[in-house]
Write a structure and sequence with these properties.
Blueprint: H1 4-21, E1 24-33, E2 40-47, E3 50-57, E4 60-70, E5 73-82, E6 87-96, E7 101-109, E8 114-122, E9 128-134, E10 139-146
């Protein structure tokens, strides 16, 4: 076994880690309770299929994560064969989910109170929306948009 192989493998893995580390999207969250017109704000930093989320309502900050429960796209392999020599061809096909991905967020404040959110439409670089509900049953509509770099 050549010494080059482990070094090349390590270099490949390191390159993938560096590329993926840069693949984070930051989103601005705007929440409005269905009982009033007041706006509350938060932020989510998405890395892969989950995100770190923080939302502040009436001075109370809720933190936690959202995880993807339905992907924004799926990939499959399609192949076909013909002839007596069994010649074939295949390709990978990616199909977007027209409604975007769906995620579930479970957030908790320092006092133990919770905020549960269902998020739709999120994918890298896209906006989305959804709802959140606190422990008292109050429902908030949520808008999510990609944070602009200024």
């Amino acid at each position: 076994m050549s010494v080059r192989r482990p070094v090349a493998r390590f270099a490949s893995i390191a390159a993938v880690v560096v590329v993926l580390a840069g693949c984070a999207s930051t989103y601005e969250l705007t929440l409005m309770p269905r009982t009033a017109g007041k706006l509350y704000y938060g932020e989510a930093v998405q890395r892969g299929s989950q995100a770190d989320v923080s939302v502040t309502i009436e001075g109370k900050t809720y933190t936690g994560t959202w995880v993807e429960v339905t992907p924004d796209r799926t990939t499959g392999y399609v192949s076909g064969w013909w002839g007596w020599r069994r010649s074939g061809i295949g390709t990978t096909v990616t199909v977007d989910n027209p409604t975007g991905g769906e995620s579930k967020a479970l957030l908790q404040a320092a006092d133990g109170s919770g905020l549960r959110c269902d998020i739709r439409g999120t994918a890298y670089g896209r906006s989305g929306g959804g709802t959140c509900q606190d422990d008292k049953g109050l429902v908030y509509d949520v808008q999510i948009r990609l944070k602009e770099n200024k």
